[in-house]
Please model this.
Amino acid sequence: MAKVTFDYTNLREVEGGIGDRELQELGLRLEDAIDGFFKNPPGFMRLPKTAEFSSPSKALAEEVRALGATDFIHVGIGGSALGPIALHRALNHPYYNLLPSYPGPRLHFAENTDPATLAAILDVVDLPNTWVNVVTKSGSTAETIANFLVIRGNLVEALGEGTYREHVVFTTDSEEGYLRQIADREGTRTLPIPPDVGGRFSVLTPVGLFPAAVTGLDVDALLRGAAQCVDEVAQRGADHPAVEGAAYYYLMDVSKGRNVRVMMPYADPLDRFAAWFVQLWAESLGKEGRGSTPHGAVGTTDQHSQVQLYMEGPQDKVIEIIEVEDHPRDLPIPKAYEDLEGVGYLSGHTMAELLNVECNATRKALLEAGRPNATISLATLDEEHLGYLMQALEVQTAIAGSLYSVNAFNQPGVEAAKQITYSRMGRPGY
Model:
Protein backbone atom coordinates (compact mmCIF):
# COMPACT_ATOMS: atom_id res chain seq x y z
CA MET A 1 0.00 0.00 0.00
CA ALA A 2 1.30 3.44 -0.93
CA LYS A 3 2.20 5.79 1.90
CA VAL A 4 1.91 9.39 0.71
CA THR A 5 1.44 12.23 3.19
CA PHE A 6 0.69 15.93 2.75
CA ASP A 7 1.85 18.39 5.41
CA TYR A 8 0.49 21.95 5.30
CA THR A 9 1.70 22.95 8.77
CA ASN A 10 4.09 25.57 7.43
CA LEU A 11 1.30 27.25 5.47
CA ARG A 12 -0.46 27.94 8.75
CA GLU A 13 2.33 28.56 11.24
CA VAL A 14 4.35 30.96 9.12
CA GLU A 15 3.79 34.66 9.85
CA GLY A 16 0.87 35.82 7.72
CA GLY A 17 -0.16 32.25 7.00
CA ILE A 18 -3.65 30.88 6.54
CA GLY A 19 -5.80 30.95 9.65
CA ASP A 20 -8.67 28.83 10.89
CA ARG A 21 -11.23 31.49 10.05
CA GLU A 22 -10.22 31.61 6.39
CA LEU A 23 -10.41 27.84 6.11
CA GLN A 24 -13.80 27.77 7.82
CA GLU A 25 -15.18 30.46 5.54
CA LEU A 26 -14.08 28.43 2.51
CA GLY A 27 -15.36 25.19 4.03
CA LEU A 28 -18.84 25.23 2.48
CA ARG A 29 -17.45 25.99 -0.97
CA LEU A 30 -14.96 23.15 -0.61
CA GLU A 31 -17.76 20.77 0.43
CA ASP A 32 -19.82 21.87 -2.58
CA ALA A 33 -16.81 21.36 -4.84
CA ILE A 34 -16.20 17.80 -3.69
CA ASP A 35 -19.93 16.99 -3.80
CA GLY A 36 -20.11 18.22 -7.39
CA PHE A 37 -16.95 16.31 -8.20
CA PHE A 38 -18.52 13.02 -7.16
CA LYS A 39 -21.97 13.73 -8.61
CA ASN A 40 -20.36 14.10 -12.02
CA PRO A 41 -16.90 12.54 -11.67
CA PRO A 42 -14.38 13.42 -14.38
CA GLY A 43 -13.26 10.62 -16.66
CA PHE A 44 -9.82 10.27 -15.08
CA MET A 45 -11.38 9.00 -11.86
CA ARG A 46 -12.46 5.69 -13.41
CA LEU A 47 -9.12 4.91 -15.04
CA PRO A 48 -7.38 3.17 -12.09
CA LYS A 49 -10.13 0.60 -11.66
CA THR A 50 -10.70 -0.58 -15.20
CA ALA A 51 -8.69 -2.93 -17.37
CA GLU A 52 -10.28 -1.39 -20.47
CA PHE A 53 -7.14 0.60 -21.21
CA SER A 54 -4.41 -1.23 -19.31
CA SER A 55 -5.00 -4.66 -20.85
CA PRO A 56 -4.53 -3.67 -24.51
CA SER A 57 -1.58 -1.46 -23.56
CA LYS A 58 0.18 -4.31 -21.77
CA ALA A 59 -0.60 -6.82 -24.52
CA LEU A 60 0.76 -4.62 -27.29
CA ALA A 61 3.81 -3.71 -25.22
CA GLU A 62 4.56 -7.39 -24.72
CA GLU A 63 4.34 -7.90 -28.48
CA VAL A 64 6.78 -5.05 -29.12
CA ARG A 65 9.24 -6.53 -26.64
CA ALA A 66 8.78 -10.08 -27.95
CA LEU A 67 9.52 -8.98 -31.51
CA GLY A 68 12.89 -7.70 -30.37
CA ALA A 69 12.39 -4.01 -31.00
CA THR A 70 15.60 -2.12 -30.29
CA ASP A 71 14.07 1.38 -30.30
CA PHE A 72 10.69 2.89 -29.45
CA ILE A 73 9.87 6.48 -30.47
CA HIS A 74 7.03 8.12 -28.58
CA VAL A 75 5.66 11.02 -30.66
CA GLY A 76 3.48 13.53 -28.81
CA ILE A 77 3.46 16.94 -27.19
CA GLY A 78 1.95 18.49 -24.06
CA GLY A 79 -0.26 16.04 -22.21
CA SER A 80 0.56 13.39 -24.81
CA ALA A 81 4.22 13.46 -23.75
CA LEU A 82 4.72 14.99 -20.31
CA GLY A 83 3.04 12.15 -18.40
CA PRO A 84 4.94 9.37 -20.20
CA ILE A 85 8.20 11.30 -19.81
CA ALA A 86 7.52 11.80 -16.08
CA LEU A 87 6.95 8.07 -15.58
CA HIS A 88 10.05 7.11 -17.54
CA ARG A 89 12.30 9.62 -15.80
CA ALA A 90 10.97 8.80 -12.31
CA LEU A 91 10.97 5.03 -12.49
CA ASN A 92 13.53 3.86 -15.06
CA HIS A 93 17.29 4.02 -14.83
CA PRO A 94 18.37 7.57 -15.79
CA TYR A 95 20.73 6.10 -18.40
CA TYR A 96 18.25 3.44 -19.46
CA ASN A 97 19.16 3.79 -23.15
CA LEU A 98 22.85 3.20 -22.40
CA LEU A 99 22.57 0.11 -20.20
CA PRO A 100 24.35 -2.87 -21.80
CA SER A 101 21.32 -5.08 -21.20
CA TYR A 102 18.37 -2.70 -21.06
CA PRO A 103 15.04 -4.30 -20.11
CA GLY A 104 13.20 -3.19 -23.25
CA PRO A 105 13.60 -1.05 -26.36
CA ARG A 106 15.52 2.19 -26.03
CA LEU A 107 12.93 4.91 -25.49
CA HIS A 108 13.02 8.23 -27.37
CA PHE A 109 10.59 11.15 -27.12
CA ALA A 110 9.87 13.24 -30.21
CA GLU A 111 8.12 16.03 -28.37
CA ASN A 112 9.02 19.44 -29.82
CA THR A 113 9.32 20.37 -33.49
CA ASP A 114 12.97 21.37 -33.21
CA PRO A 115 14.65 19.54 -36.10
CA ALA A 116 17.85 19.13 -34.09
CA THR A 117 16.15 16.74 -31.67
CA LEU A 118 14.30 14.71 -34.27
CA ALA A 119 17.40 14.44 -36.45
CA ALA A 120 19.38 13.25 -33.43
CA ILE A 121 16.80 10.54 -32.70
CA LEU A 122 16.98 9.37 -36.31
CA ASP A 123 20.78 9.33 -36.03
CA VAL A 124 20.77 6.74 -33.24
CA VAL A 125 17.78 4.45 -33.83
CA ASP A 126 17.98 1.19 -35.74
CA LEU A 127 15.09 1.90 -38.12
CA PRO A 128 14.36 -1.70 -39.21
CA ASN A 129 13.87 -2.58 -35.53
CA THR A 130 12.14 0.63 -34.43
CA TRP A 131 8.51 1.00 -33.33
CA VAL A 132 6.71 4.34 -33.31
CA ASN A 133 3.82 5.39 -31.08
CA VAL A 134 2.01 8.50 -32.37
CA VAL A 135 -0.13 10.13 -29.68
CA THR A 136 -2.71 12.80 -30.46
CA LYS A 137 -6.35 12.63 -29.49
CA SER A 138 -7.52 14.93 -32.27
CA GLY A 139 -5.21 13.39 -34.83
CA SER A 140 -4.32 16.83 -36.14
CA THR A 141 -1.83 18.28 -33.64
CA ALA A 142 0.60 20.00 -36.01
CA GLU A 143 3.77 19.27 -34.05
CA THR A 144 2.94 15.59 -33.60
CA ILE A 145 1.83 15.02 -37.17
CA ALA A 146 4.94 16.77 -38.54
CA ASN A 147 7.22 14.57 -36.42
CA PHE A 148 5.30 11.49 -37.50
CA LEU A 149 5.50 12.36 -41.20
CA VAL A 150 9.28 12.76 -40.99
CA ILE A 151 9.68 9.47 -39.10
CA ARG A 152 7.25 7.77 -41.48
CA GLY A 153 9.34 8.84 -44.45
CA ASN A 154 12.43 7.31 -42.89
CA LEU A 155 10.59 4.10 -41.99
CA VAL A 156 9.21 3.74 -45.52
CA GLU A 157 12.70 4.18 -46.91
CA ALA A 158 14.08 1.54 -44.52
CA LEU A 159 11.23 -0.98 -44.57
CA GLY A 160 9.09 -0.27 -47.60
CA GLU A 161 5.57 1.11 -47.94
CA GLY A 162 3.92 -2.16 -47.04
CA THR A 163 6.00 -3.10 -43.99
CA TYR A 164 6.50 0.23 -42.22
CA ARG A 165 2.91 0.28 -40.92
CA GLU A 166 3.58 -2.89 -38.92
CA HIS A 167 5.92 -0.79 -36.77
CA VAL A 168 3.45 2.03 -36.07
CA VAL A 169 0.81 2.45 -33.37
CA PHE A 170 -1.68 5.33 -33.19
CA THR A 171 -2.85 6.27 -29.69
CA THR A 172 -5.83 8.45 -30.49
CA ASP A 173 -9.59 8.94 -30.27
CA SER A 174 -11.39 5.65 -30.60
CA GLU A 175 -13.89 6.89 -33.18
CA GLU A 176 -12.81 10.01 -35.05
CA GLY A 177 -9.87 12.17 -36.12
CA TYR A 178 -7.28 12.08 -38.89
CA LEU A 179 -5.18 9.33 -37.32
CA ARG A 180 -8.29 7.20 -37.15
CA GLN A 181 -8.81 7.79 -40.88
CA ILE A 182 -5.20 6.82 -41.63
CA ALA A 183 -5.52 3.74 -39.43
CA ASP A 184 -8.66 2.65 -41.29
CA ARG A 185 -6.90 3.23 -44.62
CA GLU A 186 -3.60 1.52 -43.81
CA GLY A 187 -4.55 -1.02 -41.17
CA THR A 188 -2.43 0.65 -38.49
CA ARG A 189 -2.89 -0.66 -34.98
CA THR A 190 -4.47 1.74 -32.49
CA LEU A 191 -4.90 2.27 -28.77
CA PRO A 192 -7.83 4.36 -27.50
CA ILE A 193 -7.80 7.66 -25.63
CA PRO A 194 -11.19 7.87 -23.88
CA PRO A 195 -13.28 10.84 -25.06
CA ASP A 196 -13.91 12.08 -21.52
CA VAL A 197 -10.21 12.30 -20.56
CA GLY A 198 -8.18 15.32 -21.67
CA GLY A 199 -4.50 15.13 -22.51
CA ARG A 200 -3.09 16.49 -19.26
CA PHE A 201 -5.20 13.98 -17.28
CA SER A 202 -4.37 11.04 -19.58
CA VAL A 203 -1.25 9.52 -18.02
CA LEU A 204 -3.22 6.46 -16.81
CA THR A 205 -4.68 5.80 -20.26
CA PRO A 206 -2.67 4.13 -23.04
CA VAL A 207 -0.97 7.52 -23.46
CA GLY A 208 1.17 6.72 -20.42
CA LEU A 209 0.56 3.01 -19.85
CA PHE A 210 1.76 1.74 -23.24
CA PRO A 211 5.26 3.30 -23.22
CA ALA A 212 5.59 2.46 -19.52
CA ALA A 213 4.82 -1.20 -20.21
CA VAL A 214 7.20 -1.24 -23.20
CA THR A 215 10.07 -0.31 -20.88
CA GLY A 216 9.06 -2.94 -18.33
CA LEU A 217 7.46 -0.75 -15.68
CA ASP A 218 4.79 -2.33 -13.44
CA VAL A 219 1.61 -0.84 -14.88
CA ASP A 220 -0.59 -2.78 -12.44
CA ALA A 221 1.23 -1.25 -9.45
CA LEU A 222 0.88 2.22 -10.96
CA LEU A 223 -2.89 1.73 -11.24
CA ARG A 224 -3.08 0.12 -7.81
CA GLY A 225 -1.62 3.23 -6.19
CA ALA A 226 -3.98 5.46 -8.12
CA ALA A 227 -6.95 3.28 -7.15
CA GLN A 228 -5.96 3.58 -3.49
CA CYS A 229 -6.11 7.35 -3.87
CA VAL A 230 -9.56 7.16 -5.51
CA ASP A 231 -10.87 5.07 -2.60
CA GLU A 232 -9.40 7.36 0.05
CA VAL A 233 -10.76 10.51 -1.59
CA ALA A 234 -14.20 8.86 -1.79
CA GLN A 235 -14.02 7.92 1.90
CA ARG A 236 -12.70 11.22 3.26
CA GLY A 237 -14.14 13.77 0.83
CA ALA A 238 -13.18 17.33 1.76
CA ASP A 239 -10.99 15.98 4.58
CA HIS A 240 -8.61 14.24 2.20
CA PRO A 241 -5.31 16.13 2.24
CA ALA A 242 -5.15 16.38 -1.56
CA VAL A 243 -8.53 18.09 -1.51
CA GLU A 244 -7.48 20.30 1.40
CA GLY A 245 -4.47 21.29 -0.68
CA ALA A 246 -6.78 22.81 -3.29
CA ALA A 247 -8.15 25.10 -0.56
CA TYR A 248 -4.71 26.01 0.77
CA TYR A 249 -3.23 26.93 -2.61
CA TYR A 250 -6.39 28.78 -3.63
CA LEU A 251 -6.31 30.85 -0.44
CA MET A 252 -2.59 31.50 -0.74
CA ASP A 253 -3.29 32.99 -4.16
CA VAL A 254 -6.50 34.98 -3.69
CA SER A 255 -6.10 35.97 0.00
CA LYS A 256 -2.34 36.24 0.43
CA GLY A 257 -1.19 37.32 -3.02
CA ARG A 258 1.08 34.28 -3.33
CA ASN A 259 0.34 33.45 -6.92
CA VAL A 260 3.43 31.36 -7.68
CA ARG A 261 3.43 27.70 -6.65
CA VAL A 262 6.91 26.19 -6.74
CA MET A 263 7.07 22.40 -6.82
CA MET A 264 10.52 21.35 -5.59
CA PRO A 265 11.15 17.61 -5.40
CA TYR A 266 14.28 16.51 -3.56
CA ALA A 267 14.92 13.72 -6.05
CA ASP A 268 16.43 14.06 -9.50
CA PRO A 269 14.06 11.42 -10.96
CA LEU A 270 11.11 13.70 -10.19
CA ASP A 271 12.32 16.70 -12.19
CA ARG A 272 10.06 15.86 -15.15
CA PHE A 273 7.27 14.99 -12.75
CA ALA A 274 7.34 18.66 -11.77
CA ALA A 275 7.10 19.57 -15.47
CA TRP A 276 4.06 17.28 -15.79
CA PHE A 277 2.43 19.04 -12.84
CA VAL A 278 3.22 22.49 -14.24
CA GLN A 279 1.08 21.75 -17.29
CA LEU A 280 -1.67 20.14 -15.21
CA TRP A 281 -2.06 23.16 -12.93
CA ALA A 282 -1.38 25.91 -15.48
CA GLU A 283 -3.54 24.70 -18.34
CA SER A 284 -6.40 23.66 -16.05
CA LEU A 285 -6.67 26.82 -13.96
CA GLY A 286 -5.19 29.71 -15.94
CA LYS A 287 -8.43 31.19 -17.27
CA GLU A 288 -10.47 34.38 -17.07
CA GLY A 289 -7.67 36.21 -15.25
CA ARG A 290 -7.53 33.55 -12.53
CA GLY A 291 -5.14 30.86 -11.44
CA SER A 292 -1.69 30.76 -9.88
CA THR A 293 1.57 30.17 -11.75
CA PRO A 294 3.26 26.78 -11.22
CA HIS A 295 7.03 26.51 -11.42
CA GLY A 296 9.41 23.56 -11.17
CA ALA A 297 12.64 23.34 -9.19
CA VAL A 298 14.86 20.48 -7.95
CA GLY A 299 16.58 20.09 -4.61
CA THR A 300 19.35 20.31 -3.79
CA THR A 301 20.42 21.69 -7.16
CA ASP A 302 18.25 24.78 -6.91
CA GLN A 303 19.31 25.54 -3.35
CA HIS A 304 22.32 26.97 -5.13
CA SER A 305 20.29 29.10 -7.52
CA GLN A 306 16.59 29.71 -7.00
CA VAL A 307 16.34 29.37 -3.22
CA GLN A 308 17.99 32.78 -2.78
CA LEU A 309 14.93 34.26 -4.52
CA TYR A 310 12.56 32.15 -2.44
CA MET A 311 14.21 33.21 0.81
CA GLU A 312 14.65 36.94 0.21
CA GLY A 313 12.73 37.83 -2.94
CA PRO A 314 9.11 38.96 -3.33
CA GLN A 315 6.58 37.43 -0.95
CA ASP A 316 4.59 35.98 -3.83
CA LYS A 317 5.47 32.27 -3.66
CA VAL A 318 4.45 29.06 -1.95
CA ILE A 319 7.13 26.36 -1.94
CA GLU A 320 5.94 22.75 -2.18
CA ILE A 321 8.68 20.29 -1.29
CA ILE A 322 8.47 16.63 -2.31
CA GLU A 323 10.65 14.34 -0.23
CA VAL A 324 11.40 10.63 -0.60
CA GLU A 325 11.91 9.01 2.78
CA ASP A 326 13.59 5.81 1.58
CA HIS A 327 15.44 6.34 -1.69
CA PRO A 328 15.54 3.23 -3.90
CA ARG A 329 19.34 3.54 -4.21
CA ASP A 330 21.95 4.97 -1.86
CA LEU A 331 25.72 5.34 -1.72
CA PRO A 332 27.96 5.56 1.35
CA ILE A 333 30.36 8.49 1.56
CA PRO A 334 33.83 6.95 2.13
CA LYS A 335 36.22 8.19 4.79
CA ALA A 336 38.88 10.51 3.43
CA TYR A 337 40.68 13.75 4.37
CA GLU A 338 39.48 13.48 7.97
CA ASP A 339 42.04 16.06 9.04
CA LEU A 340 40.21 18.70 6.96
CA GLU A 341 37.18 19.85 8.94
CA GLY A 342 35.37 21.14 5.86
CA VAL A 343 35.61 17.75 4.15
CA GLY A 344 36.06 14.93 6.65
CA TYR A 345 32.77 15.50 8.49
CA LEU A 346 30.87 13.91 5.59
CA SER A 347 32.58 10.57 6.09
CA GLY A 348 30.36 7.83 7.45
CA HIS A 349 27.16 9.37 6.11
CA THR A 350 25.33 8.48 2.89
CA MET A 351 24.27 10.47 -0.16
CA ALA A 352 20.56 9.90 0.55
CA GLU A 353 21.06 11.02 4.15
CA LEU A 354 22.69 14.25 2.94
CA LEU A 355 19.90 14.85 0.42
CA ASN A 356 17.19 14.47 3.05
CA VAL A 357 19.08 16.58 5.60
CA GLU A 358 19.31 19.32 2.96
CA CYS A 359 15.57 18.96 2.34
CA ASN A 360 14.80 19.42 6.03
CA ALA A 361 17.22 22.35 6.23
CA THR A 362 15.50 24.16 3.37
CA ARG A 363 12.08 23.60 4.90
CA LYS A 364 13.25 24.95 8.28
CA ALA A 365 15.07 27.92 6.74
CA LEU A 366 12.00 28.89 4.70
CA LEU A 367 9.82 28.77 7.81
CA GLU A 368 12.24 30.87 9.82
CA ALA A 369 12.34 33.41 6.99
CA GLY A 370 8.54 33.68 7.01
CA ARG A 371 8.17 31.89 3.69
CA PRO A 372 5.19 29.51 3.51
CA ASN A 373 5.93 25.97 2.40
CA ALA A 374 4.26 22.57 2.31
CA THR A 375 5.62 19.04 2.03
CA ILE A 376 4.56 15.90 0.20
CA SER A 377 6.33 12.80 1.54
CA LEU A 378 6.64 9.52 -0.34
CA ALA A 379 7.70 6.47 1.64
CA THR A 380 9.70 5.47 -1.44
CA LEU A 381 9.74 6.14 -5.16
CA ASP A 382 8.08 3.34 -7.10
CA GLU A 383 5.11 2.76 -9.39
CA GLU A 384 2.56 2.46 -6.60
CA HIS A 385 3.56 5.69 -4.85
CA LEU A 386 3.82 7.65 -8.07
CA GLY A 387 0.41 6.41 -9.23
CA TYR A 388 -1.10 7.58 -5.96
CA LEU A 389 0.53 11.00 -6.18
CA MET A 390 -0.45 11.61 -9.79
CA GLN A 391 -4.07 10.73 -9.07
CA ALA A 392 -4.06 12.94 -5.96
CA LEU A 393 -2.75 15.97 -7.84
CA GLU A 394 -5.29 15.49 -10.62
CA VAL A 395 -8.05 15.46 -7.98
CA GLN A 396 -6.57 18.55 -6.35
CA THR A 397 -6.45 20.41 -9.66
CA ALA A 398 -10.05 19.57 -10.50
CA ILE A 399 -11.26 20.75 -7.08
CA ALA A 400 -9.20 23.94 -7.40
CA GLY A 401 -11.00 24.60 -10.68
CA SER A 402 -14.29 24.65 -8.80
CA LEU A 403 -12.90 27.06 -6.20
CA TYR A 404 -11.63 29.37 -8.95
CA SER A 405 -14.97 28.98 -10.78
CA VAL A 406 -13.26 27.92 -14.01
CA ASN A 407 -13.60 24.85 -16.21
CA ALA A 408 -10.52 22.80 -15.34
CA PHE A 409 -10.94 20.57 -18.39
CA ASN A 410 -10.73 22.93 -21.36
CA GLN A 411 -7.89 25.05 -22.76
CA PRO A 412 -9.29 27.90 -24.88
CA GLY A 413 -6.13 29.95 -24.45
CA VAL A 414 -4.02 27.59 -26.56
CA GLU A 415 -6.35 27.60 -29.56
CA ALA A 416 -5.45 31.02 -30.99
CA ALA A 417 -1.85 30.07 -31.76
CA LYS A 418 -3.05 26.81 -33.31
CA GLN A 419 -5.35 28.71 -35.67
CA ILE A 420 -2.53 31.02 -36.76
CA THR A 421 -0.17 28.07 -37.26
CA TYR A 422 -2.71 26.22 -39.41
CA SER A 423 -3.24 29.34 -41.51
CA ARG A 424 0.44 30.08 -42.10
CA MET A 425 1.26 26.45 -42.88
CA GLY A 426 -1.49 26.39 -45.51
CA ARG A 427 -4.07 24.11 -43.92
CA PRO A 428 -7.31 24.40 -45.95
CA GLY A 429 -10.06 26.37 -44.26
CA TYR A 430 -7.77 28.45 -42.02
